[in-house]
Protein backbone atom coordinates (compact mmCIF):
# COMPACT_ATOMS: atom_id res chain seq x y z
CA UNK A 1 0.00 0.00 0.00
CA UNK A 2 1.13 3.49 -0.81
CA UNK A 3 0.78 6.33 1.75
CA UNK A 4 -0.17 8.62 -1.16
CA UNK A 5 -3.50 8.73 -2.95
CA UNK A 6 -4.99 11.09 -5.58
CA UNK A 7 -8.52 10.96 -7.06
CA UNK A 8 -9.84 9.78 -10.44
CA UNK A 9 -12.28 12.27 -12.04
CA UNK A 10 -14.75 11.76 -14.94
CA UNK A 11 -14.28 14.42 -17.64
CA UNK A 12 -16.92 14.89 -20.34
CA UNK A 13 -15.53 14.74 -23.91
CA UNK A 14 -16.72 16.66 -26.98
CA UNK A 15 -18.71 13.64 -28.27
CA UNK A 16 -20.67 13.36 -25.00
CA UNK A 17 -18.79 10.39 -23.59
CA UNK A 18 -16.72 10.51 -20.42
CA UNK A 19 -13.02 9.98 -19.92
CA UNK A 20 -11.48 9.04 -16.58
CA UNK A 21 -8.64 11.39 -15.69
CA UNK A 22 -6.18 10.99 -12.85
CA UNK A 23 -6.13 14.27 -10.89
CA UNK A 24 -2.42 14.87 -10.22
CA UNK A 25 -2.64 18.56 -9.33
CA UNK A 26 -1.40 18.03 -5.77
CA UNK A 27 1.54 15.96 -7.03
CA UNK A 28 2.36 18.63 -9.63
CA UNK A 29 2.37 21.37 -6.97
CA UNK A 30 5.04 19.49 -5.04
CA UNK A 31 7.18 18.61 -8.07
CA UNK A 32 10.35 20.59 -8.78
CA UNK A 33 10.08 20.84 -12.56
CA UNK A 34 13.12 20.52 -14.80
CA UNK A 35 13.88 23.09 -17.48
CA UNK A 36 11.65 22.09 -20.44
CA UNK A 37 14.00 20.91 -23.19
CA UNK A 38 11.25 21.05 -25.82
CA UNK A 39 11.44 22.51 -29.32
CA UNK A 40 9.98 26.00 -29.75
CA UNK A 41 6.88 25.76 -32.01
CA UNK A 42 7.46 29.41 -32.91
CA UNK A 43 10.65 28.53 -34.80
CA UNK A 44 10.20 24.80 -35.43
CA UNK A 45 8.49 25.17 -38.82
CA UNK A 46 11.33 27.36 -40.15
CA UNK A 47 13.15 24.14 -41.00
CA UNK A 48 10.55 23.11 -43.58
CA UNK A 49 10.94 25.71 -46.31
CA UNK A 50 8.39 26.68 -48.97
CA UNK A 51 9.36 23.96 -51.47
CA UNK A 52 7.93 21.12 -49.40
CA UNK A 53 4.57 20.21 -50.98
CA UNK A 54 3.61 16.89 -49.31
CA UNK A 55 3.30 16.03 -45.64
CA UNK A 56 2.64 13.17 -43.24
CA UNK A 57 1.74 13.71 -39.57
CA UNK A 58 2.24 10.84 -37.11
CA UNK A 59 0.73 11.07 -33.62
CA UNK A 60 1.98 8.45 -31.16
CA UNK A 61 -0.74 6.63 -29.22
CA UNK A 62 -0.49 6.45 -25.42
CA UNK A 63 3.03 7.74 -25.86
CA UNK A 64 3.78 8.41 -22.18
CA UNK A 65 3.01 4.78 -21.31
CA UNK A 66 6.07 3.71 -23.27
CA UNK A 67 8.28 5.16 -20.49
CA UNK A 68 8.54 2.95 -17.34
CA UNK A 69 8.50 4.61 -13.93
CA UNK A 70 11.32 4.24 -11.43
CA UNK A 71 10.33 1.88 -8.58
CA UNK A 72 10.85 4.61 -5.95
CA UNK A 73 8.43 6.95 -7.75
CA UNK A 74 5.51 4.55 -8.21
CA UNK A 75 4.02 5.22 -4.75
CA UNK A 76 3.51 8.90 -5.61
CA UNK A 77 1.07 7.98 -8.39
CA UNK A 78 -1.24 5.67 -6.44
CA UNK A 79 -5.03 5.94 -6.72
CA UNK A 80 -8.11 4.13 -5.42
CA UNK A 81 -10.07 1.98 -7.89
CA UNK A 82 -13.47 0.30 -7.46
CA UNK A 83 -14.27 -2.68 -9.65
CA UNK A 84 -17.58 -1.90 -11.46
CA UNK A 85 -18.69 -5.56 -11.23
CA UNK A 86 -17.56 -6.80 -7.80
CA UNK A 87 -17.46 -3.30 -6.22
CA UNK A 88 -14.22 -4.31 -4.59
CA UNK A 89 -11.97 -1.36 -3.76
CA UNK A 90 -8.22 -1.49 -4.06
CA UNK A 91 -5.25 0.83 -4.49
CA UNK A 92 -3.38 0.76 -7.79
CA UNK A 93 -0.14 2.40 -8.89
CA UNK A 94 1.11 3.63 -12.22
CA UNK A 95 4.16 1.72 -13.47
CA UNK A 96 4.61 4.02 -16.50
CA UNK A 97 4.56 7.81 -17.00
CA UNK A 98 0.97 8.91 -16.27
CA UNK A 99 -0.89 11.50 -18.29
CA UNK A 100 -1.55 14.67 -16.31
CA UNK A 101 1.86 14.66 -14.62
CA UNK A 102 3.61 17.98 -15.25
CA UNK A 103 6.92 16.37 -16.23
CA UNK A 104 5.52 13.70 -18.58
CA UNK A 105 5.72 15.71 -21.87
CA UNK A 106 9.27 16.87 -21.14
CA UNK A 107 10.55 13.43 -20.10
CA UNK A 108 8.93 11.60 -23.00
CA UNK A 109 10.04 14.25 -25.50
CA UNK A 110 13.67 13.80 -24.45
CA UNK A 111 13.36 10.00 -24.57
CA UNK A 112 11.86 10.06 -28.09
CA UNK A 113 14.52 12.51 -29.26
CA UNK A 114 17.23 10.06 -28.16
CA UNK A 115 15.47 7.23 -30.02
CA UNK A 116 15.17 9.31 -33.21
CA UNK A 117 18.91 9.98 -33.19
CA UNK A 118 19.26 6.43 -34.52
CA UNK A 119 16.98 7.28 -37.45
CA UNK A 120 18.45 8.88 -40.58
CA UNK A 121 16.04 10.66 -42.96
CA UNK A 122 16.36 10.32 -46.71
CA UNK A 123 17.57 13.07 -49.04
CA UNK A 124 15.06 15.85 -49.72
CA UNK A 125 12.90 14.95 -46.71
CA UNK A 126 12.62 16.76 -43.36
CA UNK A 127 11.54 15.17 -40.06
CA UNK A 128 10.29 17.40 -37.21
CA UNK A 129 9.46 16.25 -33.67
CA UNK A 130 7.42 18.11 -31.04
CA UNK A 131 6.96 15.88 -27.95
CA UNK A 132 4.93 12.96 -29.43
CA UNK A 133 3.88 14.64 -32.72
CA UNK A 134 6.02 13.86 -35.79
CA UNK A 135 5.93 15.63 -39.17
CA UNK A 136 7.50 14.43 -42.41
CA UNK A 137 7.73 16.93 -45.29
CA UNK A 138 9.12 16.51 -48.79
CA UNK A 139 9.01 17.92 -52.30
CA UNK A 140 7.55 14.82 -53.96
CA UNK A 141 4.78 12.42 -53.03
CA UNK A 142 6.93 9.33 -53.60
CA UNK A 143 9.69 10.51 -51.26
CA UNK A 144 7.21 11.33 -48.48
CA UNK A 145 5.45 7.97 -48.93
CA UNK A 146 8.69 5.98 -48.71
CA UNK A 147 9.94 7.99 -45.70
CA UNK A 148 6.60 7.69 -43.86
CA UNK A 149 6.53 3.89 -44.25
CA UNK A 150 10.15 3.59 -43.16
CA UNK A 151 9.52 5.76 -40.06
CA UNK A 152 6.39 3.78 -39.10
CA UNK A 153 8.37 0.53 -39.27
CA UNK A 154 11.14 2.09 -37.18
CA UNK A 155 8.67 3.20 -34.47
CA UNK A 156 7.08 -0.25 -34.45
CA UNK A 157 10.49 -1.85 -33.93
CA UNK A 158 10.93 0.43 -30.89
CA UNK A 159 7.53 -0.79 -29.53
CA UNK A 160 5.88 2.60 -30.02
CA UNK A 161 2.26 2.71 -31.19
CA UNK A 162 0.72 5.17 -33.65
CA UNK A 163 -2.82 6.57 -33.49
CA UNK A 164 -4.51 5.47 -36.71
CA UNK A 165 -7.39 7.92 -36.16
CA UNK A 166 -4.98 10.88 -36.04
CA UNK A 167 -2.64 9.72 -38.80
CA UNK A 168 -2.41 12.14 -41.75
CA UNK A 169 -0.71 10.11 -44.47
CA UNK A 170 0.84 11.78 -47.53
CA UNK A 171 -1.43 14.81 -47.87
CA UNK A 172 -1.00 18.22 -49.49
CA UNK A 173 -2.63 19.94 -46.50
CA UNK A 174 -2.15 18.79 -42.92
CA UNK A 175 -2.87 20.08 -39.43
CA UNK A 176 0.18 20.29 -37.16
CA UNK A 177 0.65 22.14 -33.84
CA UNK A 178 -2.43 24.30 -34.37
CA UNK A 179 -1.41 25.28 -37.93
CA UNK A 180 -2.55 24.21 -41.35
CA UNK A 181 0.36 23.59 -43.73
CA UNK A 182 -0.18 23.69 -47.50
CA UNK A 183 2.18 24.30 -50.42
CA UNK A 184 4.87 25.97 -48.36
CA UNK A 185 2.48 28.21 -46.44
CA UNK A 186 0.91 28.15 -42.98
CA UNK A 187 -2.32 29.49 -41.55
CA UNK A 188 -4.05 29.38 -38.18
CA UNK A 189 -6.30 26.42 -37.43
CA UNK A 190 -9.93 27.70 -37.76
CA UNK A 191 -10.90 25.56 -34.74
CA UNK A 192 -8.37 27.44 -32.63
CA UNK A 193 -9.79 30.76 -33.86
CA UNK A 194 -13.33 29.56 -33.13
CA UNK A 195 -12.31 28.58 -29.60
CA UNK A 196 -10.78 32.00 -28.91
CA UNK A 197 -13.84 33.81 -30.31
CA UNK A 198 -16.14 31.81 -28.01
CA UNK A 199 -14.39 33.12 -24.89
CA UNK A 200 -16.50 35.80 -23.14
CA UNK A 201 -14.95 39.13 -22.07
CA UNK A 202 -12.63 38.48 -19.09
CA UNK A 203 -13.87 39.40 -15.62
CA UNK A 204 -10.71 38.67 -13.63
CA UNK A 205 -6.96 39.00 -14.04
CA UNK A 206 -6.66 35.23 -14.29
CA UNK A 207 -9.03 35.22 -17.28
CA UNK A 208 -7.05 38.07 -18.88
CA UNK A 209 -3.85 36.02 -18.59
CA UNK A 210 -5.59 33.02 -20.14
CA UNK A 211 -6.81 35.17 -23.05
CA UNK A 212 -3.33 36.63 -23.58
CA UNK A 213 -1.84 33.14 -23.58
CA UNK A 214 -4.25 31.96 -26.30
CA UNK A 215 -3.86 35.12 -28.38
CA UNK A 216 -0.09 35.07 -28.01
CA UNK A 217 0.14 31.79 -29.92
CA UNK A 218 -1.35 33.61 -32.94
CA UNK A 219 0.70 36.80 -32.68
CA UNK A 220 2.71 36.07 -35.86
CA UNK A 221 -0.47 36.57 -37.90
CA UNK A 222 -1.63 39.82 -36.25
CA UNK A 223 -0.10 43.08 -37.41
CA UNK A 224 1.08 45.32 -34.54
CA UNK A 225 -0.09 42.74 -32.00
CA UNK A 226 1.54 44.39 -28.97
CA UNK A 227 -0.34 47.65 -29.50
CA UNK A 228 -3.64 45.84 -29.88
CA UNK A 229 -3.27 43.86 -26.63
CA UNK A 230 -1.80 46.77 -24.67
CA UNK A 231 -5.18 47.48 -23.06
CA UNK A 232 -5.16 43.97 -21.54
CA UNK A 233 -1.69 44.42 -20.03
CA UNK A 234 -2.78 47.77 -18.59
CA UNK A 235 -5.64 46.04 -16.78
CA UNK A 236 -3.20 43.54 -15.27
CA UNK A 237 -1.13 46.39 -13.83
CA UNK A 238 -4.16 48.12 -12.28
CA UNK A 239 -5.05 47.46 -8.66
CA UNK A 240 -8.34 46.00 -7.48
CA UNK A 241 -10.99 44.22 -9.56
CA UNK A 242 -11.04 44.29 -13.35
CA UNK A 243 -13.36 46.95 -14.78
CA UNK A 244 -14.55 46.15 -18.31
CA UNK A 245 -16.30 48.87 -20.34
CA UNK A 246 -17.50 49.55 -23.89
CA UNK A 247 -14.08 50.82 -24.95
CA UNK A 248 -12.54 47.49 -23.94
CA UNK A 249 -15.24 45.64 -25.88
CA UNK A 250 -14.31 47.67 -28.95
CA UNK A 251 -10.60 46.79 -28.57
CA UNK A 252 -11.40 43.10 -28.08
CA UNK A 253 -13.66 42.99 -31.15
CA UNK A 254 -10.94 44.64 -33.25
CA UNK A 255 -8.49 41.99 -32.06
CA UNK A 256 -10.95 39.20 -32.87
CA UNK A 257 -11.54 40.72 -36.32
CA UNK A 258 -7.80 40.62 -37.04
CA UNK A 259 -7.70 37.01 -35.90
CA UNK A 260 -10.58 35.98 -38.19
CA UNK A 261 -8.94 37.75 -41.14
CA UNK A 262 -5.41 36.56 -40.37
CA UNK A 263 -3.25 36.28 -43.51
CA UNK A 264 -1.56 33.15 -44.82
CA UNK A 265 2.18 33.26 -44.06
CA UNK A 266 4.94 31.82 -46.18
CA UNK A 267 7.28 29.24 -44.68
CA UNK A 268 10.83 30.64 -44.70
CA UNK A 269 13.51 29.49 -47.13
CA UNK A 270 16.77 29.60 -45.16
CA UNK A 271 18.81 29.73 -48.38
CA UNK A 272 17.25 33.02 -49.53
CA UNK A 273 17.83 36.50 -48.03
CA UNK A 274 15.24 37.89 -45.61
CA UNK A 275 13.91 41.46 -45.55
CA UNK A 276 12.89 43.01 -42.23
CA UNK A 277 10.96 46.29 -42.08
CA UNK A 278 11.25 48.01 -38.66
CA UNK A 279 9.54 51.08 -37.22
CA UNK A 280 8.08 52.37 -33.94
CA UNK A 281 4.81 53.99 -32.97
CA UNK A 282 3.71 55.20 -29.52
CA UNK A 283 6.26 53.09 -27.67
CA UNK A 284 5.50 49.96 -29.71
CA UNK A 285 7.94 48.17 -31.98
CA UNK A 286 6.47 46.56 -35.08
CA UNK A 287 7.90 44.76 -38.08
CA UNK A 288 7.15 42.46 -40.97
CA UNK A 289 9.62 39.79 -42.05
CA UNK A 290 9.45 38.87 -45.74
CA UNK A 291 11.16 37.02 -48.57
CA UNK A 292 10.98 37.75 -52.28
CA UNK A 293 9.19 35.29 -54.56
CA UNK A 294 8.65 36.08 -58.26
CA UNK A 295 9.45 39.74 -57.63
CA UNK A 296 6.94 40.10 -54.77
CA UNK A 297 7.51 40.30 -51.03
CA UNK A 298 5.69 37.50 -49.22
CA UNK A 299 5.24 37.90 -45.44
CA UNK A 300 6.90 35.25 -43.29
CA UNK A 301 5.67 36.69 -40.00
CA UNK A 302 4.54 39.80 -38.14
CA UNK A 303 6.03 40.65 -34.79
CA UNK A 304 5.67 43.52 -32.37
CA UNK A 305 6.88 44.35 -28.88
CA UNK A 306 6.35 47.03 -26.27
CA UNK A 307 9.45 49.05 -25.49
CA UNK A 308 10.61 49.07 -21.88
CA UNK A 309 9.72 52.18 -19.81
CA UNK A 310 13.25 53.61 -20.10
CA UNK A 311 13.35 53.37 -23.91
CA UNK A 312 9.87 54.87 -24.25
CA UNK A 313 11.24 58.09 -22.77
CA UNK A 314 13.87 58.48 -25.50
CA UNK A 315 13.62 60.43 -28.79
CA UNK A 316 11.84 58.63 -31.62
CA UNK A 317 15.01 57.86 -33.59
CA UNK A 318 16.64 56.26 -30.54
CA UNK A 319 13.50 54.20 -29.95
CA UNK A 320 13.94 52.92 -33.52
CA UNK A 321 17.48 51.80 -32.63
CA UNK A 322 16.16 49.72 -29.72
CA UNK A 323 13.34 48.42 -31.92
CA UNK A 324 15.81 47.29 -34.54
CA UNK A 325 17.96 45.41 -32.02
CA UNK A 326 14.93 43.71 -30.41
CA UNK A 327 13.41 42.60 -33.68
CA UNK A 328 16.64 41.40 -35.25
CA UNK A 329 16.98 39.12 -32.21
CA UNK A 330 13.44 37.83 -32.79
CA UNK A 331 13.97 37.46 -36.54
CA UNK A 332 17.11 35.38 -35.96
CA UNK A 333 14.92 32.73 -34.30
CA UNK A 334 13.19 32.27 -37.67
CA UNK A 335 16.10 32.96 -40.03
CA UNK A 336 18.63 30.95 -37.98
CA UNK A 337 21.11 33.85 -38.44
CA UNK A 338 20.70 33.76 -42.22
CA UNK A 339 21.20 36.71 -44.55
CA UNK A 340 19.03 39.59 -43.31
CA UNK A 341 18.46 43.08 -44.75
CA UNK A 342 16.89 45.52 -42.27
CA UNK A 343 14.95 48.44 -43.73
CA UNK A 344 13.88 51.41 -41.60
CA UNK A 345 13.14 55.13 -42.07
CA UNK A 346 15.88 55.76 -39.47
CA UNK A 347 19.67 55.82 -39.85
CA UNK A 348 20.30 53.06 -37.30
CA UNK A 349 24.05 52.78 -37.89
CA UNK A 350 24.62 56.56 -37.64
CA UNK A 351 22.60 56.83 -34.42
CA UNK A 352 24.45 53.92 -32.83
CA UNK A 353 27.88 55.29 -33.70
CA UNK A 354 27.32 58.99 -32.97
CA UNK A 355 24.40 59.72 -30.63
CA UNK A 356 23.63 56.59 -28.61
CA UNK A 357 26.25 57.01 -25.86
CA UNK A 358 24.39 60.00 -24.37
CA UNK A 359 21.28 57.97 -23.67
CA UNK A 360 22.27 54.32 -23.55
CA UNK A 361 24.31 52.63 -20.82
CA UNK A 362 27.57 50.90 -21.71
CA UNK A 363 26.02 47.46 -21.17
CA UNK A 364 23.11 48.19 -23.52
CA UNK A 365 25.38 49.85 -26.06
CA UNK A 366 27.67 46.83 -26.17
CA UNK A 367 24.67 44.52 -26.64
CA UNK A 368 23.18 46.60 -29.47
CA UNK A 369 26.54 46.90 -31.24
CA UNK A 370 26.96 43.13 -31.07
CA UNK A 371 23.53 42.57 -32.62
CA UNK A 372 23.55 45.30 -35.28
CA UNK A 373 27.18 45.99 -36.20
CA UNK A 374 29.05 42.73 -35.59
CA UNK A 375 26.75 40.42 -37.57
CA UNK A 376 28.38 39.63 -40.95
CA UNK A 377 25.08 38.62 -42.60
CA UNK A 378 23.15 41.70 -41.44
CA UNK A 379 22.70 44.78 -43.66
CA UNK A 380 21.15 48.04 -42.40
CA UNK A 381 19.37 50.20 -44.99
CA UNK A 382 17.56 53.55 -44.72
CA UNK A 383 14.26 53.71 -46.63
CA UNK A 384 11.57 56.40 -46.52
CA UNK A 385 8.86 53.87 -45.69
CA UNK A 386 6.52 54.56 -42.79
CA UNK A 387 4.48 51.36 -42.37
CA UNK A 388 4.45 47.67 -43.38
CA UNK A 389 1.78 48.21 -46.06
CA UNK A 390 4.08 50.58 -47.98
CA UNK A 391 6.89 48.07 -47.58
CA UNK A 392 4.87 45.10 -48.88
CA UNK A 393 2.85 46.64 -51.68
CA UNK A 394 5.10 49.21 -53.34
CA UNK A 395 7.09 52.36 -52.75
CA UNK A 396 5.17 55.50 -51.74
CA UNK A 397 6.02 59.02 -52.78
CA UNK A 398 9.13 59.83 -50.79
CA UNK A 399 8.69 63.61 -50.87
CA UNK A 400 8.94 64.97 -47.36
CA UNK A 401 9.21 61.55 -45.71
CA UNK A 402 12.99 61.35 -45.33
CA UNK A 403 14.58 62.92 -42.27
CA UNK A 404 18.06 63.33 -40.80
CA UNK A 405 18.10 61.32 -37.56
CA UNK A 406 21.09 63.07 -35.97
CA UNK A 407 19.64 66.56 -36.45
CA UNK A 408 16.18 65.33 -35.40
CA UNK A 409 17.60 64.05 -32.11
CA UNK A 410 19.25 67.44 -31.57
CA UNK A 411 15.95 69.24 -32.19
CA UNK A 412 14.05 66.90 -29.87
CA UNK A 413 16.53 67.20 -27.00
CA UNK A 414 17.85 70.80 -27.02
CA UNK A 415 15.99 73.42 -25.02
CA UNK A 416 17.42 76.12 -27.29
CA UNK A 417 19.34 75.68 -30.56
CA UNK A 418 22.35 77.76 -29.47
CA UNK A 419 22.88 75.85 -26.21
CA UNK A 420 26.51 74.75 -26.28
CA UNK A 421 28.43 71.99 -24.51
CA UNK A 422 31.81 73.70 -24.98
CA UNK A 423 32.83 76.88 -23.16
CA UNK A 424 32.29 80.26 -24.81
CA UNK A 425 35.19 82.62 -25.40
CA UNK A 426 33.16 85.62 -24.29
CA UNK A 427 31.03 86.28 -21.23
CA UNK A 428 31.20 85.32 -17.56
CA UNK A 429 32.71 82.05 -16.31
CA UNK A 430 30.70 80.64 -13.40
CA UNK A 431 31.61 77.53 -11.37
CA UNK A 432 28.71 76.05 -9.40
CA UNK A 433 28.33 73.24 -6.89
CA UNK A 434 25.97 71.92 -4.24
CA UNK A 435 26.67 69.98 -1.07
CA UNK A 436 24.55 67.73 1.13
CA UNK A 437 26.09 65.57 3.87
CA UNK A 438 25.41 64.26 7.36
CA UNK A 439 27.34 65.79 10.27
CA UNK A 440 26.64 64.62 13.82
CA UNK A 441 23.58 62.67 12.63
CA UNK A 442 22.17 65.78 11.00
CA UNK A 443 22.03 66.56 7.28
CA UNK A 444 23.42 69.92 6.19
CA UNK A 445 23.02 71.34 2.67
CA UNK A 446 24.27 74.34 0.73
CA UNK A 447 25.32 75.76 -2.64
CA UNK A 448 27.90 78.13 -4.09
CA UNK A 449 28.68 80.12 -7.26
CA UNK A 450 32.29 81.15 -7.92
CA UNK A 451 33.32 83.40 -10.84
CA UNK A 452 36.27 84.91 -12.71
CA UNK A 453 40.00 84.30 -12.80
CA UNK A 454 40.22 85.28 -9.13
CA UNK A 455 37.49 82.74 -8.27
CA UNK A 456 35.52 85.21 -6.20
CA UNK A 457 32.41 83.93 -4.44
CA UNK A 458 29.45 85.52 -6.21
CA UNK A 459 26.77 83.82 -4.16
CA UNK A 460 26.50 81.03 -1.60
CA UNK A 461 24.23 79.98 1.18
CA UNK A 462 22.58 77.18 3.15
CA UNK A 463 19.64 75.15 1.87
CA UNK A 464 17.02 73.03 3.57
CA UNK A 465 18.41 70.08 5.48
CA UNK A 466 15.87 67.89 3.66
CA UNK A 467 17.50 68.53 0.28
CA UNK A 468 19.64 65.87 -1.42
CA UNK A 469 22.95 66.54 -3.17
CA UNK A 470 21.18 66.45 -6.56
CA UNK A 471 18.66 69.07 -5.46
CA UNK A 472 21.44 71.33 -4.18
CA UNK A 473 23.36 71.02 -7.46
CA UNK A 474 20.22 71.79 -9.46
CA UNK A 475 19.59 74.89 -7.35
CA UNK A 476 23.17 76.08 -7.86
CA UNK A 477 22.81 75.82 -11.65
CA UNK A 478 19.40 77.53 -11.46
CA UNK A 479 20.82 80.52 -9.56
CA UNK A 480 23.72 80.79 -12.04
CA UNK A 481 21.28 80.86 -14.96
CA UNK A 482 19.24 83.57 -13.25
CA UNK A 483 22.42 85.64 -12.75
CA UNK A 484 23.22 85.29 -16.48
CA UNK A 485 19.81 86.54 -17.64
CA UNK A 486 20.23 88.75 -20.75
CA UNK A 487 23.99 88.10 -20.63
CA UNK A 488 26.47 85.69 -22.21
CA UNK A 489 28.47 83.19 -20.22
CA UNK A 490 29.59 79.66 -19.40
CA UNK A 491 28.47 77.57 -16.42
CA UNK A 492 30.75 74.77 -15.19
CA UNK A 493 29.29 71.95 -13.08
CA UNK A 494 30.47 68.52 -11.96
CA UNK A 495 26.85 67.33 -11.63
CA UNK A 496 26.14 64.75 -14.34
CA UNK A 497 22.49 64.85 -13.29
CA UNK A 498 22.08 68.59 -13.91
CA UNK A 499 24.15 68.42 -17.10
CA UNK A 500 21.99 65.64 -18.61
CA UNK A 501 18.76 67.47 -17.72
CA UNK A 502 20.01 70.54 -19.60
CA UNK A 503 21.48 68.81 -22.66
CA UNK A 504 19.64 65.48 -22.94
CA UNK A 505 16.38 64.88 -21.08
CA UNK A 506 15.07 68.35 -20.26
CA UNK A 507 13.11 69.18 -23.41
CA UNK A 508 11.43 65.77 -23.61
CA UNK A 509 10.49 65.96 -19.92
CA UNK A 510 9.10 69.46 -20.47
CA UNK A 511 6.95 68.28 -23.39
CA UNK A 512 5.61 65.46 -21.19
CA UNK A 513 4.81 67.99 -18.43
CA UNK A 514 7.56 66.53 -16.21
CA UNK A 515 5.99 63.08 -16.15
CA UNK A 516 8.38 60.15 -16.56
CA UNK A 517 7.86 57.24 -18.98
CA UNK A 518 6.01 55.29 -16.25
CA UNK A 519 3.45 58.07 -15.81
CA UNK A 520 4.77 59.32 -12.46
CA UNK A 521 5.95 62.78 -11.39
CA UNK A 522 9.66 63.45 -11.64
CA UNK A 523 11.72 63.88 -8.49
CA UNK A 524 12.69 67.56 -7.98
CA UNK A 525 9.85 68.50 -10.34
CA UNK A 526 9.60 72.14 -9.21
CA UNK A 527 13.35 72.73 -9.43
CA UNK A 528 13.52 71.17 -12.91
CA UNK A 529 10.62 73.32 -14.13
CA UNK A 530 12.34 76.51 -12.91
CA UNK A 531 15.67 75.37 -14.36
CA UNK A 532 14.21 74.76 -17.83
CA UNK A 533 12.52 78.15 -17.75
CA UNK A 534 15.74 79.89 -16.66
CA UNK A 535 17.68 78.26 -19.53
CA UNK A 536 15.91 80.59 -21.96
CA UNK A 537 17.03 83.72 -20.07
CA UNK A 538 20.71 84.20 -21.07
CA UNK A 539 21.55 85.89 -24.36
CA UNK A 540 24.14 83.25 -25.22
CA UNK A 541 25.36 80.44 -23.03
CA UNK A 542 27.07 77.09 -22.55
CA UNK A 543 26.85 74.50 -19.78
CA UNK A 544 30.02 72.43 -19.45
CA UNK A 545 30.52 69.25 -17.41
CA UNK A 546 33.71 68.82 -15.36
CA UNK A 547 35.04 65.85 -13.44
CA UNK A 548 34.75 66.47 -9.73
CA UNK A 549 37.58 66.60 -7.17
CA UNK A 550 40.42 66.85 -9.69
CA UNK A 551 43.90 67.73 -8.47
CA UNK A 552 45.55 70.38 -10.60
CA UNK A 553 46.39 74.05 -10.93
CA UNK A 554 44.56 74.69 -14.20
CA UNK A 555 41.72 77.19 -14.23
CA UNK A 556 38.87 74.65 -14.45
CA UNK A 557 40.14 72.38 -11.66
CA UNK A 558 40.75 75.34 -9.33
CA UNK A 559 37.33 76.81 -10.09
CA UNK A 560 35.48 73.54 -9.53
CA UNK A 561 37.30 72.85 -6.25
CA UNK A 562 36.67 76.41 -5.04
CA UNK A 563 32.92 76.05 -5.67
CA UNK A 564 32.92 72.68 -3.88
CA UNK A 565 34.68 74.05 -0.78
CA UNK A 566 32.42 77.11 -0.60
CA UNK A 567 29.27 74.94 -0.92
CA UNK A 568 30.49 72.75 1.96
CA UNK A 569 31.18 75.82 4.10
CA UNK A 570 27.77 77.33 3.30
CA UNK A 571 26.04 74.06 4.21
CA UNK A 572 27.23 74.37 7.82
CA UNK A 573 24.79 77.27 8.27
CA UNK A 574 21.79 74.98 7.59
CA UNK A 575 20.90 74.42 11.23
CA UNK A 576 20.63 78.16 11.80
CA UNK A 577 18.55 78.75 8.70
CA UNK A 578 15.77 76.22 9.22
CA UNK A 579 12.53 78.02 8.33
CA UNK A 580 10.46 79.15 11.28
CA UNK A 581 7.40 77.16 10.15
CA UNK A 582 9.42 73.92 10.05
CA UNK A 583 10.89 74.60 13.52
CA UNK A 584 7.41 75.22 14.91
CA UNK A 585 6.09 72.00 13.35
CA UNK A 586 8.97 70.01 14.85
CA UNK A 587 8.42 71.55 18.30
CA UNK A 588 4.69 70.85 18.08
CA UNK A 589 5.34 67.20 17.07
CA UNK A 590 7.70 66.71 20.02
CA UNK A 591 5.16 68.16 22.49
CA UNK A 592 2.41 65.98 21.02
CA UNK A 593 4.56 62.83 21.32
CA UNK A 594 5.45 63.67 24.94
CA UNK A 595 1.76 64.14 25.80
CA UNK A 596 0.80 60.77 24.27
CA UNK A 597 3.57 59.00 26.22
CA UNK A 598 2.46 60.58 29.52
CA UNK A 599 -1.17 59.55 28.98
CA UNK A 600 -0.13 55.99 28.05
CA UNK A 601 2.03 55.64 31.21
CA UNK A 602 -0.78 56.98 33.37
CA UNK A 603 -3.20 54.46 31.85
CA UNK A 604 -0.81 51.56 32.59
CA UNK A 605 -0.40 52.66 36.21
CA UNK A 606 -4.17 52.85 36.60
CA UNK A 607 -4.60 49.27 35.33
CA UNK A 608 -1.94 47.98 37.76
CA UNK A 609 -3.72 49.56 40.75
CA UNK A 610 -6.98 47.80 39.77
From TrEMBL:
Gene3D superfamilies cross-referenced by the UniProt entry: 3.10.20.370, 3.30.70.270, HIV Type 1 Reverse Transcriptase, subunit A, domain 1, Ribonuclease H-like superfamily/Ribonuclease H
Domain RNase H type-1: 424-572
InterPro entries: DNA/RNA_pol_sf, Rev_trsase/Diguanyl_cyclase, RNaseH-like_sf, RNaseH_domain, RNaseH_sf, RT_dom, RT_RNaseH_2, Viral_Replic_Matur_Polypro
First-level EC class: hydrolase
GO molecular function annotation: nucleic acid binding; RNA-DNA hybrid ribonuclease activity
Any matching Pfam family: RVT_1
Superkingdom field: Eukaryota
PANTHER family to which the protein is assigned, alphabetical: POL PROTEIN (PTHR33064), RIBONUCLEASE H (PTHR33064:SF37)
Membership in a protein family: Belongs to the beta type-B retroviral polymerase family. HERV class-II K(HML-2) pol subfamily.
Official protein name in the record: ribonuclease H
Organism: Hirundo rustica rustica
Amino acid sequence: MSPFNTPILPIKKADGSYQLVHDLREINKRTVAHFPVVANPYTLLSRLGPKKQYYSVIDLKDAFWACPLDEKSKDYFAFEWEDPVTHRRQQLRWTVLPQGFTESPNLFGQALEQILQEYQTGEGVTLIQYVDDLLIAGETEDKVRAESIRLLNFLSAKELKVSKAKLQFIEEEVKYLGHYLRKGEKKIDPERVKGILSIPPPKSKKQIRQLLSLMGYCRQWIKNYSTKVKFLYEKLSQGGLVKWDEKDDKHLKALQHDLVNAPVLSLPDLKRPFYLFVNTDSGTVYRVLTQEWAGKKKPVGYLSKLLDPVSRGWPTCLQALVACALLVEEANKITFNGELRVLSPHNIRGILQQKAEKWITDARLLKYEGILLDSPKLTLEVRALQNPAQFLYGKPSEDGLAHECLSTIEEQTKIRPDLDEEELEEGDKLFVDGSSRVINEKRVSGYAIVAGERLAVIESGPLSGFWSAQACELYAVLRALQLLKDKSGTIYTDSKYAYEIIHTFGKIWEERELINSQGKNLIHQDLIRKLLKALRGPKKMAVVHLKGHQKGLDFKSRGNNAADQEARRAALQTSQSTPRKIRRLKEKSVRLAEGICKRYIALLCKKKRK
